[in-house]
Amino acid sequence: MMFADLTEFHQWLAERRAAHEYRVVPTPLKRLDGWAVDPGTGDLHHRSGRFFSVHGLDVTGSRREVGQWQQPIISQPEHGILGILVKEVGGVLYCLLQAKMEPGNVNTLQLSPTVQATRSNYTRVHRGRPVPYLELFTSLGRGRPLADALQSEQGSWFLAKRNRNMVVRIDEDVPVLDNFCWLSLDQIGRLLAMDDLVNMDTRTVLSHLLPRGEQVSGRPLHTVPEVLNWLTHHKTTDRTVRRPVPLAKTDGWRVSDDDVRHEYDRHFRIIGVDVRAEDREVRGWSQPMLAPCGEGIAAFVVRTVGGVPHVLVQARAEAGTPDTVEIAPTVQCNPGNLAHLPRTRHPRYLDAVLEAPPERVLFDVVHSEEGGRFYHARNRYRAVEVGDEFPLDVADGFRWVTRDQLALLNQFGGLLNVETRNLLTCLGFIK
């Protein structure tokens, strides 16, 4: 399935949405089928011992706006596969994507990678249908790999979670199943400018397929070894310590039969849902989900220096980041969680991002986060251009890098956090 224009695509997506029954019903945690609460700790886990669990985490030594806290966190110690098949048709590269229902999606269906599956899913712990096209990513020699990297996911909500981000090029024809379609990179770029359409898993894999940057005559402010030196310095000097604590005794959080929530209704809740989806590997299931309180923001500040566009990034530690510190956007926060703090303790450069005049905004789009674990989680992805009034001498922990340098570092995995990869995709593809 290919489309002559995006009008045809939107018609196809509407047809896919109407073709199946989807239902997501909020349900008290104590009534979730297949899930149990540990009587000693209050932790949530699946009866199979697989999929994921929810427990408490104690964080100390952080250099963030708040240096010490406790929180619930999702533990899923297995590597999933996020893979996109690509092929060239008439000199144009196309990606095979699927219209996939996830229980946390605000609009039910979004564009997912060819394969989006946890290890528990693709090893069929749930005894459901096999994952389509999986063998093209797990069998060596079926296609030509263009990218393959272990990448972290949301470090503020997941504990040490990584997924395998893959791009595989094929020359053979493959059958296109009902919920799948071929889209060109140009079409995907235009869809990325639309809210809540291209899902997070697709966006992170697309960061490995960035178009080549324009040729520029100048040089970056810092070489790639210098950027790696800066990042490694912050990794090795970070003093963040995290240790598990019982969910029932997580300070500042209230655990009930219905949900888990912050005492001041900030940050997020842990809720339960019952799900019905006719076209998934399993047609019905129950699960806990993390439901954020409010919309977050992830943003780049962009400045051209010596004819070379640079983006401002930071070395940032999260509660659950696998390797403590990764490269993060200029600004990454949920403004609603900061209302009780004085402005002096707000993230640096937040005002520059939020108060930029419209003519300086390169893109501004709201995207959903991973809908398999997060319920109605949305972030505003934004890039704003600044001029000479914005200093090159930036705060400790920040560094100017080019888009192409970020793309190079991204190929090796574990260096750029998921919000940075999402912004990198938007910066490279949105027209």
UniProtKB/TrEMBL annotation:
InterPro entries: EvaA-like, EvaA-like_sf. It comes from the Bacteria. Coiled coil: none annotated. Residues 7-209, 226-427 form the dTDP-4-dehydro-6-deoxy-alpha-D-glucopyranose 2,3-dehydratase domain. This is NDP-hexose 2,3-dehydratase family protein. It comes from Streptomyces luteireticuli. The lineage of its organism: Bacteria, Bacillati, Actinomycetota, Actinomycetes, Kitasatosporales.
